[in-house]
UniProtKB/TrEMBL annotation:
InterPro entries: AB_hydrolase_3, AB_hydrolase_fold, GDXG_lipolytic_enzyme. PANTHER family: AB HYDROLASE SUPERFAMILY PROTEIN C4A8.06C (PTHR48081), ALPHA_BETA HYDROLASE FOLD-3 DOMAIN-CONTAINING PROTEIN-RELATED (PTHR48081:SF8). One of its GO terms (molecular function) is hydrolase activity. It comes from Kutzneria kofuensis. The keyword Oxidoreductase does not apply. This is Acetyl esterase/lipase. Keywords: Hydrolase. SUPFAM superfamilies: alpha/beta-Hydrolases (SSF53474). It comes from the Bacteria. The keyword Nucleotide-binding does not apply. Residues 82-284 form the Alpha/beta hydrolase fold-3 domain.
Length: 310
């Protein structure tokens, strides 16, 4: 299929694999880590301290590694943001999330808690989600030590991170967990049924496509059937969820599930902002020099800032 990609993204297409080769998870992890070396890292303009630590994990599970970014020039109490990296539920780590975490801490002035949740297929659902819930609970419980305002805790992530964030919002609502002020759902992975028009059509798009999505959900779910915390698109009741920002890319198989979820949030009375970026594909924001990528990055920061201060 021919895709009308943004002209500024075209020169980069030959450098990107036609899908990340999700059939070999270990090789994919190594390949994506190598790719990150070719992209610039964010350098904060203001003082940001970074501390990596282990926090208590879910009951009966290992401790969870988190990396805490604190904007020391911003007086406490500050907002907080639990950041969940992407990677199809099976790849990614704290280093992948570092630039985004630095930027949010620096430009928003929020304490960022980046979560190194357990990955599939070694640790299928609900391991990753429960690790993120543990990080959310820890952030709220340690608010005074972290210099955090418990009334201004947000969550979010991109791709699988956005999907887990959506599931986390549902889980916190239903468990009566810590209050979440805002959820950022960037190009979220939400629906294991793989039936939307974009998921059916985009079988050969760069970085992410239908074949990889099939494997991603296979790894994440393991032998379990999907519930609405694993695949939030299955949730029947979206009322009472925190305000949301949802972004989607035009040539992304995840496009339609993100659009539909945003519409349903709005219909459920959840204050929701939705952005569709023409000419983009899943992960095209890594091409930092493109104007559309700069706009996506700026609007993410603005959305998190508004969400945590409104």
């Amino acid at each position: 299929m021919t895709y009308a990609f943004d002209p500024e993204l075209l020169p980069w297409l030959t450098m990107l694999p036609q899908g990340v080769g999700f059939d070999d998870v270990q090789a994919t992890r190594a390949r994506m880590a190598s790719m990150r070396e070719h992209f610039p890292t964010y350098e904060p303009e203001n003082p940001v301290t970074v501390e990596e630590m282990l926090i208590p994990g879910p009951v009966g599970a290992p401790d969870v590694r988190v990396r805490v970014y604190t904007p020391t020039s911003v007086p406490a109490p500050r907002a907080a943001y639990v950041s969940i990296h992407g990677g199809g539920f099976a790849i990614g780590d704290l280093d992948q999330d570092a630039s985004v975490s630095f930027e949010i801490a620096d430009k928003v002035g929020a304490v960022v808690v980046s979560v190194d949740y357990r990955l599939a297929p070694e640790h299928p659902y609900p391991a990753g989600l429960e690790d993120c819930y543990a990080a959310l609970e820890w952030t709220a419980a340690k608010a005074s030590e972290l210099g955090v305002d418990t009334a201004r805790i947000g969550i979010g992530g991109d791709s699988a991170g956005g999907g887990i964030a959506a599931g986390l919002a549902l889980l916190a609502r239903d468990r009566g967990g810590p209050a979440i002020k805002f959820q950022y759902l960037g190009i979220p992975e939400l629906d294991d049924r793989l039936e939307t028009p974009s998921m059916t059509a985009f079988v050969d798009t760069p970085l992410w496509n239908r074949p990889n999505a099939i494997l991603s959900w296979k790894y994440y779910l393991g032998d379990r059937p999907a519930d609405h915390y694993a695949a939030p698109a299955r949730a029947e009741d979206l009322t009472g969820l925190p305000p949301a920002y949802v972004s989607v890319c035009e040539f992304d198989p995840l496009r339609d599930e993100g659009l539909t979820y945003a519409y349903r949030l709005i219909q459920a009375g959840v204050a929701t902002e939705l952005h569709h970026y023409p000419g983009t594909f899943h992960g095209s924001a890594m091409v930092h020099s493109a104007a559309v990528s700069k706009r996506m990055a700026t609007e993410r920061i603005d959305a998190v800032r508004r969400g945590l201060t409104a």
